[in-house]
Write a structure and sequence with these properties.
Helix content is 4%, strand content 16%. The protein is mainly β. It has one domain (1-110).
Length: 110
C-alpha cells in the first residue's frame, strides 16, 4: 500500500517505530488464548505495531499530518489508551489487547 502512495500517518508525524523488543509505539501484544487474558495485569509490554492509519492524498495535494495538536482541535497523530489504568475496572487494567491509534490530518491542495 505504501508503494501505491499511501502514507503511514504514525511515522509521518515523526513518531518512532515499535522497537523489536516491544514497548513504546507498539499497538498489540497483550493477551493469551482467552478473550480477556492478560488485560488484568498492569505490567504488560506491547510487542508489535499492527494497527495503522494509512492515508493517500489525491493528485495535486499534500497530506498534512498534525503532530502535536497544533490546530488545537484536541486530536494528535499517534497512540492513545496505550497505558494501563491506574485502578482496574472490573478487574481489568487494559480496555483492549490493542491500543488506539488516531490521526489528525488535512490536505493542502494549492
Amino acid at each position: 500500500m505504501l508503494a501505491g502512495g499511501f502514507i503511514d500517518t504514525h511515522l509521518a508525524a515523526n513518531n518512532a517505530e515499535c522497537p523489536p523488543q516491544g514497548g513504546a509505539n507498539c499497538t498489540s501484544g497483550i493477551g493469551g488464548p482467552g478473550d480477556l487474558d492478560g488485560l488484568d495485569i498492569a505490567e504488560q509490554t506491547l510487542r508489535s505495531r499492527i494497527d495503522f492509519i494509512l492515508a493517500a492524498p489525491p493528485p495535486g495535494c499534500e497530506l498534512l499530518v498534525d503532530v502535536g495538536d497544533a490546530d488545537e482541535d484536541g486530536t494528535h497523530t499517534g497512540l492513545w489508551a496505550d497505558k494501563p489504568l491506574d485502578e482496574p475496572v472490573e478487574g481489568l487494567y487494559w480496555a483492549s489487547d490493542h491500543t488506539g491509534v488516531q490521526a489528525d490530518i488535512g490536505l493542502d491542495c494549492r
